[in-house]
Amino acid sequence: MNCPHTAATQTDPGAGTVVIDPMVQDLDGETARLRDAGVLARIDLLGVPAWTVTRHAEARQLLLDQRLVKDIDAWGLWQSGVVTRAWPLIGMIDAGRSMFTVDGAEHRRLRTKTSQALTPRRLEAIRPEIEKFTDELLDALDAARGEDGVVDLKSVFAQPLPMKVVGMLMGVDESQHAMLTRQYKAFFSMLTPQEERLALLAELDVFYTDLVREKTARPTDDLTSALILAEEGGEPLTEEEVVGNLKAMVAAGHETTIGLVLNAVRALLSHPDQLRMVLAGEAGWDAVIEETLRWDTPTTHLLMRFATEDITVGDDVIRKGEGVVVSYRAIGRDVGHHGPDADAFDITRPTRNRHMTFGHGPHICPGAALSRVEAGIALPALFTRFPGLRLAVPDEEITKLPVMTQNDMTAFPVLLG
Ligand code: STR
């Protein structure tokens, strides 16, 4: 097969290689194929070969392995020019210097302030604002009901809420939220032509750079301003580093929490016995959130880390220069870790808190506590306000967006009851 996205012509992906479907037509089937392909599986990402790790224990071990780095210059296929900026997934890796792309001591320097700003204790201070946003959006949901009573829970509720929260944290004005939502939708979609994707990334860079310059001139009390200011005696972050962290926060904070909230609602509506347990107080919302994180991970595959030396995992060797993806969806469905019924949604499962959906090791998601606070407010508020909430179409008709790395649905039409 000719790969249109890379400089060199690739051969057929070898036998045993799982080809990741850009259209996301059968996510459960693909997850099962990955699991069957072994602890380490060879995958094909739009013509580009990589390894992926599909098991909890080995992923945990690899996420602590300092021989794997995020620096794209350690990638053989990038060094040799086989992979170029023409590859549609390049923006997931070559995202500028930030806490997402750097390791070691420099990584700690880039990340410390962000992780300190997002501890559960610090987040208590913004809980009232998140509750206010939630109530306003529930009003909007009520008002957006069509003649037939149908309203899209995604575009009216689950999508704007995380954008408002991350916008408030980072100091991004409300007037920009619709633009950002539109740009990230196009960024993640595989239907967007690559020239368009590169152009929108360049536009976003201009937007974020302008914002950082504005905050440099007039600091406020948001995290972007805090990132600009030097720690006493410490080395301040460069403009490029602040921009990198800011865009990582907005992209991550926005996209993943939409998935968490919607996937939890969907899981509960399709498991009414479990919804009843929660509403009766026999199980907690935290159980719903953790089991959703395990069973229907917002991030399907996380791109990418590169081996700086040969790394042996079981019978396989990741060669120096090869790329490694972490397939969080497959890891959540690891029967060795969660038991033979790992494919079932069960909020009472004993291992529900033992998932690894936020990663592990130095890069573990700094926004984990924030997403739990957001979902922990949004879900009970939604079901309290609309106890008769139900899907407006059969569950099988909910479709996934053509996004290879994130678990994102097109829309989520509901009746509010
Ligand atoms: C999107 C493009 C961009 O400008 C910056 C980033 C860095 C953070 C990335 C983000 C990306 C894509 C989604 C990620 C996020 C970190 C967490 C989130 C990978 C590449 C997850 O899905 C876990």
How much helix is in the residues? Answer: 40-55%
- The structural class is alpha+beta
Integer average pLDDT: 95
With helices defined by DSSP (H or I, 4 residues minimum), what is the helix count?
17
Bound ligands = progesterone
Q: Return residue spans where pLDDT drops below 50 for at least 5 consecutive residues.
A: none
Rough outline = globular
| Run of helices and strands | EHEEHEHHHHEHHHHHHHHEEEEHHHEE
**Cα end-to-end separation:** 50 Å
> How many strand segments?
11
Entry keywords:
417 residues; alpha+beta; six-stranded mixed β-sheet; three-stranded antiparallel β-sheet; 11 strands; 47% helix; binds progesterone
Could you characterize the architecture of this molecule?
- This protein has 417 residues and is of the alpha+beta class.
- It is built from 17 helices and 11 strands.
- The chain is globular and about 55 Å long.
- It binds progesterone (STR).
- The site of progesterone has 13 residues, from α12.
